[in-house]
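Quarterly update, task 2.4: protoporphyrin IX containing FE-bound model.
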Amino acid sequence: MYPMLTHAHSGIRWVVLGLLIYAIYNSFSKMNGKKAFGAGDRKINLFAMAATHLQIILGFVLYTQSPKVMAGGDMSNSMVRFFTIEHMAYMLMAAVLITIGYAWSKRTTDEKKAKIAFWFYLIAFIIIMIGIPWPFREELGGGWF
Ligand code: HEM
């Protein structure tokens, strides 16, 4: 169960990143071209949000299984601190921003829809990039897939 979950969580990161990049690019082009932000655009943002939420749920399941998570463990160990606190905090912050951005852009006036989605999704994307245990951060033991 644990290896399967880790692989799923690791692989779905690419789906989340891909959908977020697409949603950000799409909102940016609508914002810049001053074009209407319609139901199709909202759907792109919805898919990106759903993928992020799925990843968060998987993350919480993994949190109960991973040997890298130690509540009350040695916080001077950067891997334990990262997976017990930092990774979860970054990702939850990003998911909250995406959820607010999606809901707000849905409710606001037509001129503001693309702009709100763009900024909230962009900031969330940057936070996710910072919060991922990339393999070049060797002390964290993460992989590419
Ligand atoms: C958008 C949200 C998230 C993304 C993109 C993401 C991405 C990742 C990636 C790429 C890894 C490394 C997997 C590997 O070793 O190859 C990882 C590991 C992990 N993630 Fe997340 N994560 C997210 C949210 C969360 C959340 C909210 C939690 C906890 C509540 C969580 C818990 C974990 C744990 C415990 C590991 C370590 C797994 C292990 O190797 O034992 N993740 N995450």
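Highlight for this quarter: Residues 6, 9-10, 13, 16, 52, 55-56, 59-60, 62-63, 66, 68-69, 83, 87-88, 91-92, 128, 132-133, 142-143 surround protoporphyrin IX containing FE (CB under 6 Å).
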